[in-house]
Amino acid sequence: MATDYDTPRKTDDDINEDSIEELKARRNEKSTSSVDVDEFEQAEGLELPGADLSNEELSVRVLPRQADEFTCMSCFLVHHRSQLAAEKNGQPICRDCAA
């Protein structure tokens, strides 16, 4: 980048004044452009197309624990017997929890 040596040099006071003026200008720009918006209220009014599920009814068929399944006493999920890793104090533990 070329330097113009004929331009008057700025002293430290001039540099500080310029930076203060620039800071004031930036502060004024930021204060006029920023708006305090509550994200929750903004999301409250947002409607997605086809997202009205108020009249929908979910139906899930729940099966009782089968003979070849067990409930892990660490994560309380029902697993197949092939996932049985060990028993602690007589309670079954799955492979994920035992690892």
The main sheet comes to: 2 strands, antiparallel
> What is the number of helices?
3
Ends apart, CA distance between termini: 62 Å
| Strand-pairing-aware structural class | alpha+beta
Backbone CA Rg: 34 Å
Mean pLDDT across all amino acids: 80
Secondary-structure element order, N to C = HHEEEEH
Shape by Cα distribution: elongated
Instruction: List segments where confidence is low: pLDDT < 50 over at least 5 consecutive residues.
Output: none
What is the number of strand segments? 4
Q: Could you give the order of strands across the largest sheet?
A: 1-2
What is the helix fraction of residues, given as a range?
A: 25-40%
Describe the oligomeric state of these chains in a short phrase.
Answer: single chain
How much of the sequence is in beta strands?
A: 15-25%
Task: Please give a structural write-up.
With 99 residues, the protein is α+β, with helices and mostly antiparallel strands. It has helices at residues 12-33, 39-44, 95-98, and strands spanning 69-71, 78-80, 84-88, 91-94. The longest helix has 22 residues, at 12-33. Strand 3 (84-88) and strand 4 (91-94) form a beta hairpin. The strands form 2 sheets. It has a two-stranded antiparallel ribbon. It starts with 11 loop residues before the first helix and ends with a helix. It is elongated, with a radius of gyration of 34 Å.
